Amino acid sequence: MTAFVLVSGGYTGGWIWREVAALLRERGHTAHPVTLTGMGDRRHLAGPDTDLQTHIEDVVQVLDHEDVREAVLVGHCYGLHPLLGAADRRIERVGSVVYLDGGMPSDGDAGIDVMPDPAVRDRLLRRAVELGGGRFAPPPPLDDEELWGSLAGVSPADRERLERLAAPQPLGTLTRPLRLTGGALDLPGTGIFCTANGTSTALVAALVAAGDPRSARLTDPKVGYFDLDTGHYPMLSRPGELTEVLLRAAAGEGRRLG
User: What is the DSSP letter of 183?
Assistant: First the structure.
């Protein structure tokens, strides 16, 4: 039996893992979807000081209160920042990390830094000032895929659910840098890329072949890779396929680039 701790990306909450969590439990595993402070059904708890450290503490408390050991921590997009921060603090409780359609944050990276296009970053910050009082990043319209990511494969019913349940993101969670000692980055890891969102193992392999300075981490033999032919939200569009890949990741499978 494996314990999976599931941390969602921006604007969402633990609710987004409902189908995947149910499928993992049907297979005899435990699943702990995390709803971060200010998100999902905890949106009313956001305050002026809610930032990345708050979200790291949220994940730490789940690890401690569920008393997990050798847990598989699954972070989707922004969710990787609090997840890695928590893994760094509770390394003894973590077996591996799954990077679900997101980058591999390093020490000093803020959530907003992973957006490759400066114009998109500026637009998010401008929306936060104009519509969120400088404290929150309001959920964008669903057709704004630059901020949401690709919604390919998400059904109309799930699009409606995503729009209805989306919460404003406390801006400090995106602007405060992640601080790591290094332990979390040495854990076995799995990268899962959603190809309809423009990412893939082939692109990572191309970075490695081009001599990208980050390739030392990308080619670590403890890191494996999978591709899913869907958009940025496989927990909604392909919950069954994502569950199978998570189980394979927990077993140490995946393509190696080393």
Answer: T
